[in-house]
Amino acid sequence: MTEPVAGPSRFYRPMAARDTAERHRASTPLELLFDLCFVVAVSQASGRLHHALSADEIGHGVGRYLLVFFAIWWAWVNFTWFASAYDNDDVPYRLATMVVITGALILAAGIPRAFDRGDLVVLVIGYVIMRLAMVAQWVRAAISDPPRRVTALRFAVGIAVVQVAWVVRLWIPADLSVASFLFLVACELAVPVYAERAAGTTWHPTHIAERYGLFTLIVLGESVLASTTAVQAGFDVGGERLPLLALSAAGLVIVFAIWWVYFDRPGEEVLTTRPSGFLFGYGHYVVFASAAAIGAGITVEVDALLGIGELPTHAAAFAVAIPVACFLASVWFVHRRPGEPVRAVAFPVAAVLVLATPLGPQPLALIAAILVGLVALTAATSPKSSLNRTAKPQLR
């Protein structure tokens, strides 16, 4: 358990920068509650993607999913990195975090309207609440941390300005909606890059790797739920049950395998420089979004087998193959290390093979077999040092 930062009282403490080499820096109960509440939004996005794909509304569903998931991911990312550098666990910090959680739940409530009617008002309200709570946190950091005051003020002002732009975007003509969205996404991503140029914040490599790993587990829960749904359908419906049970088994193997390849190597080993932190942090958008989409894809495949979806079985298999391939490619990107030629080739090749599986018989079984082969290869080629999770890397 992380020890609270020393200060005058538990009610209020100066928000001093934490030590990048702090020992036993683990996720706090408040961070775990934060993740638990964010899973509601992830579940809503994954569920709506499932319904859109099953109804053969592919372009609409994927586009809205990527938009909604950006809002979920980016709010989570900003809180996580801020907490790694400044969590002082006093009352104002806890209350501000609870405001962010409230915004996440409002955002989750707006996801069905965003998918079904293109109404982004509730979603934007929830998102802006989350982001403005972070503005208050950065202002506190600016007051308490003079060496990084410029950095904190850049964060506070940058976030606030972009939130005004998100609200204004609600009245922008529909033909500019995509361009304006991409522009504001670029602005959001640019704020940390610009702010950190003044003086880097003191995020903790091991803590960040643990936080990202925990959120990966949360989004993988969507795939576990999808496999459970397949088992339930296999026992509830009449007729042939074997295909559904086989699909469930393949789905579980896929979940186990992608867990294995993600956690095969300690993530903190690549968090050694500030540029590597940006690559790790931003690259996980694809990791998280594809992991949650795998669950949606499995349920689309269940619908196809039951005959209640618009997509044929082999076409529905792409709903699993594409996110699995994206997951493999993104995990290879964020966890890559120099001097690993086998892994550098194995992950991209496995991703390409997965993309081809819907063209053959039993696509999900083939995906599972490819991933089992990848797991065996990574297990055989992983250095013994990767099993030692006690090293405490320090940020350079």
In short:
The protein has 396 residues and is an all-alpha fold.
Give an account of the 3D structure.
The chain is mainly alpha-helical and 396 residues long. The protein starts with 28 loop residues before the first helix and ends in a 15-residue tail after the last helix. It is globular and about 65 Å long. Residues 1-7 and 387-394 have low confidence and may be disordered. It has 2 domains: 29-196, no CATH class; 205-383, I/LWEQ domain (Up-down Bundle), CATH 1.20.1410. The protein contains 12 helices and no strands.
Question: How do the helices and strands line up, and which of them pair or pack?
Answer:
Elements: H1 29-54, H2 58-86, H3 91-117, H4 121-144, H5 149-169, H6 177-196, H7 205-236, H8 242-263, H9 274-306, H10 313-335, H11 341-356, H12 363-381
Q: How many structural domains are formed by the residues?
A: 2
- Kindly report the average pLDDT value: 87
Q: Using only CA atoms, what is the Rg?
A: 22 Å
CATH-defined fold name of the largest domain:
I/LWEQ domain
